[in-house]
Every structure is written in structure tokens, then in C-alpha cells.
Amino acid sequence: xxxxxxxxxxxxxxxxxxLVAILLGNAIYYFSFFPHLxxxxxxxxxxxxxxxxxxxxxCVAVYGLIRLGSKL
Length: 72
Description:
This protein is mainly α. The protein has helices at 12-33, 50-71.
């Protein structure tokens, strides 16, 4: 039985999916949404705020799309 090499219990392919989801999610948030958001939804650096929550939600949505696409 062949096993894939794992880093911290996660395969390199999964790490790549995480990285792509984070980079694309942040790009979508900062270049598409950020200029049009009200100040309460704009993320301020090094603070936990609603902007960070929205950014996280976009990254999770992108990751979900990546996983969905990989199953097709």
C-alpha cells in the first residue's frame, strides 16, 4: 500500500489547496470588496474585527470551491 508523504499529518496537495484558497480569498477581498465596504467591514491590520471575519469567510468559500472542483 503506497502512502503519500505528509507534513504535520496533511498531504502536500492539501497544503497547496490551503495556500491557493488563502491567496485567492485575500485577493478577492482586498481588490474587489475592500474599496466598496463600509468602514466597519474593512479589516484594520493586527486587529480582530468584522473585516477579518469577512476575509476569512471569503477564503473558506474559495477553499470550498476548490474542493468541490477537485471532486468533479
